[in-house]
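Running log. JK asked me to keep both predictions on one page so they can be read side by side. First protein, sequence followed by its C-alpha cells:
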Amino acid sequence: MTLLHLENLYGGPGKISVLSGINARFGSGLTGLVGPNGAGKTTLLRMIMGLIPMQSGQVRIKGTPLLDLSLRERAQRIAYLAQNGPVHWAMQVHDLVRLGRFASASSDIEDEEVIQHAMEACSVEKFARRTINTLSGGERSRVLLARALCSQTPLLLVDEPCNALDPAQQHRIMAILQGRAQAGTSVLCVLHDLPLAARYCDRLVFLHDGKIIEDDVPERVLTAKTFTNAYGLAFDKRGYLVDER
C-alpha cells in the first residue's frame, strides 16, 4: 500500500530551486535518503511536511493531496524529527514527549498509555521528571524520537538522527526506527553513515543535484556507478570504502 506518493516535485527554499522532478512512492519500511551535502535530502523532507512550498508537483499522503489537509490532519499523518531539533525551554521529558499527542483525538488515559510506550521504546522512561537540558546528546536524541513516535503517524520523517552520537547510540536509534518500520510505518531517514544505511534500511534513495539517481535495495545503490561517480569514492555493498591500493 502506498502511504506517500511524490509526483514530479520541483522547488526549494525561497526562490531557489533545489529539487527537480522528484517521483517516488513509499509504503511501509525503512527508506534511507542518501547523497552528498546539498543534494536536496532535507529540502525533500521539509517539502513533504509542507514547510517548503512546491513550485510544481504534488505530495499525496495515503492518496490525499497534502494541500487538501488541514494542519491538524497533517499532524495526524506525518511526524517529523528535524536534524539537531531545537528545544527552547527546559521542559520535563514527559511533558516534551507529550507534545507528540497534540493532534490526538484519544482520551487522556489512552494518550498516557501511548506516551509511556514511546518512552519505553526509546529507553527514556527513567528520565520522565528530568528536564531536557540535563540530558546527554544521545539521551536527548532518544527523547525527541519518543516525541515523534508517540504521534503514531503512518509516515515518519527523520533527518540525520545519528549525527554526533557514539556508535552504541547510533545503533540504538536505528534499531528503534527499524522496529517502527517493521510495524507498518513508512520511515524516511536522511543518513550520511553508509554502513548504518546498509545494515538497517530496506531501501535507499540516492539524491544528487536535486534528482533521484538511484532507488533500490542498499547493496545495489551503494555499488552503483552513479554513486561512485557522485562521491568520487567506491563503496562495497556494506557501505565501506573499497581499498583500491
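And the second, directly underneath as requested:
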Amino acid sequence: MNAARRVLAISGGVGGAKLASGLAAVLAPGELLIAVNTGDDFEHLGLTICPDLDTLMYTLSGRADPVRGWGLADETWHCLDSLAVLGGPDWFRLGDRDLATHLRRSELLRAGRTLSEATAELARALGVRHPIVPMSDAPVRTSVDTDRGSFAFQEYFVRERCEPVVRAVRYERAADAGPAPALRAWIDGERPLVVLCPSNPYLSVDPVLAVAGMRELLGSSPVVAVSPIVGGRALKGPAAKMMAELGVSVSAYGVAEHYRGLLRAFVIDREDAAQEPAIAALGMRVLVTDTVMRDAADRERLAREVLRFMAEPAR
C-alpha cells in the first residue's frame, strides 16, 4: 500500500473496534482517521454516554476489558450497586472507573466544547495516538421499532436484551446532522480508502451513512467492508437476529447486498467462501480470508490483508 494513502475506518461496537485497532497498529496517526457511530449515545443520570466512542478509546489505549470487549478492565461496580439501593436505574452497567469518562465528557460539553473536541481531549488523556471523531457533532439517535413498541437503542439493546422482534430501525435527526468537521475535511481532501469495520450494519454503520451528505461524500472513495456475519451467525451482538427478523438472508451475502451500490470490495471469512461468486455478481471484488479476530495478531493480520487487497489493481 502507498504509505501516503489515507484511510478512513468507520467503526461501531466491539467488532469494529477490533479491526480499527488492527489498522492503528499498521498505519501511522497521519494515515488513519476513525469515525465512530454515535447513534447509540444517550443521556443517562444527567450524563452524556457514548458507548461506541468509549469502546474504541478503551481498545486503542489498551484499557478495554478483554472478556466483555466493552468497558474498562479491572472494573468495580460500587456506585451502581449503591444506586440500586437508592432506587435508581441500574439496568445500564456503568462501572466506577468508566463513570469518570462520562463525568469528564459531560463537563466538557456543558462548557461549550463540541463532541469532536471533547472526544479528542479524552483520547489524548488516555494516550490514544490515532485521531477519533464522532460521525457528527449533532445528536443522532437510533430507535428500534419492534413487536413491543419503539425503543431508544440502549433500551432495546441493554434493558430489553434485544428480545423484542425488530420491525424497523430509524435514525432520528440524521437528516439535520452533518458530518463532524474533521471527518468532512478528511474525505474532502485526498479521497481516502474507506473501511467499514465488521460492525452491525443496521445499528453501527447505517447511522453513520444516514448522516446528511455522508453517502455523497463517500461517493468517489473506494469503500470496502468486512462482513460481521461468519457462517450464518454474528460473532458479537444481535446482527444475525435482526437480519432474520427483517427478512434478510443471514449470511455474508445478505450483508453485501445491504451495502450494494456503496462498496467496491467485500471481505468474507473462509467459512463463507462458497458465497464468493454471488457476492462478486453484485459488482464487488471479494477477499476470502480468516476474519475472526481472536487476539492482537489476528487484528493486525486482517488489517494488513484488507489494505493489501485494496492496493491491488482490480482484475
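Observation for JK regarding the second prediction: The first strand starts at residue 7 and ends at 11.
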